[in-house]
């Protein structure tokens, strides 16, 4: 079955204030992938980025009474993640690569860079959420191909499927994703389709 769509609104904020763990789970499912992408873009270390994103939610939970809107929560999550990334790079500043990254995210046009990074992570997060809505077999094959980087024959052998079945499921997945993305507003549609094409050409 497809995963339930997550809707974050004033009810979610109220539930979070009251310590509702279901609301926290929904918030985590919605923003965690985006924060991982955002952090990874800043520090170019995926495992560390995932840890930073997890720690951000722990910090949020400790301060959950301080937020009145989803927008406030979103801002806190991104700012906290960004600050943690800077702390991470400062600790590794003796390494040339980390020094370059730290300089990169603290440069004069920092605001523009941060906005671009946030948009980038949100766009990819939206694509990944739509991937999760694909039919089970379709989703499994799509992930193995375009995310894990497996070849068609490798997928067929791994899942015990005929090669034509794998190809058909991949084609179906792309068509379904395009159909969904075309329903977005014009600017979002353009950005999402461009990002999807980049994702599809990575392998």
Overview of this structure, please?
Pfam families: Sigma70_r2, Sigma70_r4_2. There is one protein chain. The protein is mostly helical and 203 residues long. It has two domains: 1-125, RNA polymerase sigma factor, region 2, helix turn helix motif (Rna Polymerase Sigma Factor, Chain: A), CATH 1.10.1740; 134-203, Arc Repressor Mutant, subunit A (Orthogonal Bundle). It is built from ten helices and no strands. The chain has helices at residues 10-17, 21-43, 46-62, 70-91, 96-105, 110-132, 136-147, 152-159, 163-181, 186-200. Helix 2 (21-43) packs across helix 6 (110-132) and helix 8 crosses helix 9 (163-181). The longest helix has 23 residues, at 21-43. It is globular, with a radius of gyration of 19 Å.
Q: What characteristics describe this protein?
A:
single chain, 203 residues, mainly alpha, Arc Repressor Mutant, subunit A
CATH class of the largest domain: Mainly Alpha
Q: Characterize the biggest β-sheet.
A: none
| DSSP helix fraction | over 70%
- Which percent range describes the beta-strand content? under 5%
Mean pLDDT: 79
CATH topology of the largest domain: Rna Polymerase Sigma Factor, Chain: A
Radius of gyration: 19 Å
Q: Name the shape in a single word.
A: globular
Count the DSSP helices: 10
Spans with pLDDT under 50 lasting ≥5 residues? none
How many domain units?
A: 2
CATH architecture annotation name of the largest domain: Orthogonal Bundle
What is the terminal-to-terminal distance? 27 Å
- The arrangement of helices and strands along the chain is HHHHHHHHHH
How many beta-strand elements? 0
- The name of the CATH superfamily of the largest domain reads RNA polymerase sigma factor, region 2, helix turn helix motif
User: What is the structural class?
Assistant: mainly alpha
